[in-house]
Amino acid sequence: MYEALSKYYSNAISISKLQINACAEIHNKGWNGDHSIWATSLCSDEVNFGFQHFNEKMAAPGPFILGGISGLPFVGKTGMKAFLSHVPTNGLALIVYGPHIGFTKDGLIGKVYRKNQQKPSSCCGSISAAVIAIRENHAGALDDPSDYQQTKVIQYLSMYKEEILQHENPILIATEKAYESIEENLNHILEESLPLFPGIRIGLIGGIQINTDFWGEDYFDIRRYEWIQN
């Protein structure tokens, strides 16, 4: 594990271990992967699609995408209700959620080396751009319907402007605040949606996804690991 990554996320586990452990627990609880589907509220960034093991073990060919850029659940109640309506009878709905942050081999935070790129790029680009907007006092002026999701990300994070900008690594605090916003929104959406689907079991795995350079393994810093009988 990278030195800077270990410093800030010492309890993070590999994405592969997370998937194996979660699938084993589903099995140990007597639940059937063939009666389980899963969703993500992760950032749209292509580096966040490393959960192939879940795809192999679940009934659906891939996850239902609840999140947009930064990982906020932009699909709202309508999207959540659609996802829950797809769960097999007496089945399980697993939701993996949270923001992401990159670490390069040479210690840069908030960036990664992507395949065949000579220079590192932002990770998460949405959160990084939001920090810049907040620093330059552009948060209140943004209202672009063609960039709706980013506008919302900036609005959420601007509530923590002082705390973010006063930190030596603003992207770290912004990522923490993004996690809080994602979880708060997801909880609200679930509270509104779950009563319509009695009998469904819910698995919630929340945390911060940690991306490394393209040749390395990615990690997940778990903040919530919960199984609920609705």
The number of helical runs is 8
What percent strand? Answer: 15-25%
Along the chain, the helix and strand elements come as: HEHEHEHEEEEHHHHEE
Got a strand count? Answer: 9
User: How confident overall, as mean pLDDT?
Assistant: 93
Give the class from helix and strand content and strand pairing: alpha/beta
* Domains (count): 1
Summary tags:
two-stranded antiparallel ribbon, globular, alpha/beta, 9 strands, single chain, 8 helices, 20% strand, 230 residues, seven-stranded mixed β-sheet
What does this structure look like?
This protein has 230 residues and is of the alpha/beta class. The protein has one domain (3-116, 175-229). Helix content is 37%, strand content 20%. It is built from eight helices and nine strands. The protein has helices at residues 3-8, 15-28, 52-57, 76-84, 125-135, 148-158, 161-165, 170-193; strands at residues 13-14, 36-41, 64-65, 92-97, 100-102, 111-112, 121-122, 201-211, 219-229. The strands form two sheets. Strands 1, 2, 3, 4, 5, 8 and 9 form a seven-stranded mixed β-sheet that branches. A hairpin with an 8-residue loop joins β6 (111-112) and β7 (121-122). α5 crosses α6.
Write the SSE topology.
Layout: H1 3-8, E1 13-14, H2 15-28, E2 36-41, H3 52-57, E3 64-65, H4 76-84, E4 92-97, E5 100-102, E6 111-112, E7 121-122, H5 125-135, H6 148-158, H7 161-165, H8 170-193, E8 201-211, E9 219-229
Parallel strand pairs: 2-3, 2-4, 4-8, 5-8
Antiparallel strand pairs: 1-9, 6-7, 8-9
Helix pairs in contact: 4-8, 5-6
